[in-house]
């Protein structure tokens, strides 16, 4: 489990590619302070398992499903990546519940600066628009963000200066892909009380009470 608060930006050193999978070698510093074999590290929001490490780098395997469902396959030597260790049980929870299991990829449609904020508009797959709402949470390349505007299959987020400086998002260009993980609670609620097995239910206060979401 992660929080979506990026701890550092790492650099891809090497990728050993196969047809539909690869091993990735990433240079890092802060996240390696207490690393162990088998630890989980989110790379651009994708939960990967540490298979080897040194004082300045680690490696992980990317499986065929991850190769297909995320943007990691587009990385190359020199690429910058967002990194986050799994959440410590005794730590502060600064973002939102992030599993590291990517739902799909989106495309950056537009970016513009408004004073000290950077607005980014992202096209999301049509089937996921049910999980987004204004002021709701989303993880983009592993970064916990708040959606401040939705329009069909487009969402707009605003990067504060700290996020611009401490993650890779501000360096994205129009047309670039981004990894998307939609709010876990929204997905569970939709599964439990929404469109289940073809049954369409209107989500009402009574339905939420009946299913234990409110008292």
From TrEMBL:
CDD domains with a match to the protein in the record: Riboflavin_synthase_like
GO molecular function, one term: riboflavin synthase activity
Chemical reaction(s) catalysed: 2 6,7-dimethyl-8-(1-D-ribityl)lumazine + H(+) = 5-amino-6-(D-ribitylamino)uracil + riboflavin
Residue ranges of coiled coil: none
GO biological process: riboflavin biosynthetic process
Residue intervals of the Lumazine-binding domain: 1-96, 97-193
This protein's UniProt keywords: Repeat, Riboflavin biosynthesis, Transferase
Pathway named in the protein's UniProt entry: Cofactor biosynthesis; riboflavin biosynthesis; riboflavin from 2-hydroxy-3-oxobutyl phosphate and 5-amino-6-(D-ribitylamino)uracil: step 2/2
Main EC class the enzyme belongs to: transferase
Residue stretches of each Lumazine-binding repeat: 1-96, 97-193
InterPro entries: ATP_synth_asu-like_sf (IPR023366), Lumazine-bd (IPR001783), Lumazine-bd_dom (IPR026017), Riboflavin_synthase-like_b-brl (IPR017938)
EC number(s) on file: 2.5.1.9
Complex and partners: Homotrimer.
Classification via NCBIfam families: PRK09289.1, PRK13020.1, ribE
Alphabetized PANTHER family for the sequence: RIBOFLAVIN SYNTHASE (PTHR21098:SF12), RIBOFLAVIN SYNTHASE ALPHA CHAIN (PTHR21098)
Functional description taken from the UniProt entry: Catalyzes the dismutation of two molecules of 6,7-dimethyl-8-ribityllumazine, resulting in the formation of riboflavin and 5-amino-6-(D-ribitylamino)uracil.
Name of the protein in question: Riboflavin synthase
Gene: ribE
């Amino acid at each position: 489990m992660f929080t979506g608060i990026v701890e550092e930006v790492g650099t891809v050193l090497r990728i050993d590619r196969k047809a539909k999978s690869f091993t990735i070698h990433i240079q890092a510093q802060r996240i390696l302070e207490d690393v162990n074999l088998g630890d989980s590290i989110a790379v651009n929001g994708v939960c990967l398992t540490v298979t080897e490490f040194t004082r300045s780098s680690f490696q992980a395997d990317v499986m065929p499903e991850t190769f297909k469902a995320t943007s990691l396959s587009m990385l190359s030597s020199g690429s910058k990546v967002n990194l986050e260790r799994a959440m410590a049980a005794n730590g502060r929870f600064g973002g939102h519940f992030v599993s590291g299991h990517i739902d799909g990829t989106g495309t950056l449609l537009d970016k513009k600066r408004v004073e000290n904020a950077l607005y980014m508009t992202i096209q999301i797959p049509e089937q996921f628009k049910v999980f987004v709402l204004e002021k709701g949470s989303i993880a983009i390349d592993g970064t916990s963000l708040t959606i401040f505007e939705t329009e069909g299959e487009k969402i707009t987020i605003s990067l504060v200066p700290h996020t611009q400086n401490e993650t890779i998002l501000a360096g994205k260009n129009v047309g670039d892909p981004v990894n998307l993980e939609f709010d876990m609670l929204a997905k569970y609620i939709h599964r439990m009380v929404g469109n289940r097995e073809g049954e369409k239910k209107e989500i009402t206060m009574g339905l939420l009470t009946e299913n234990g979401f409110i008292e």
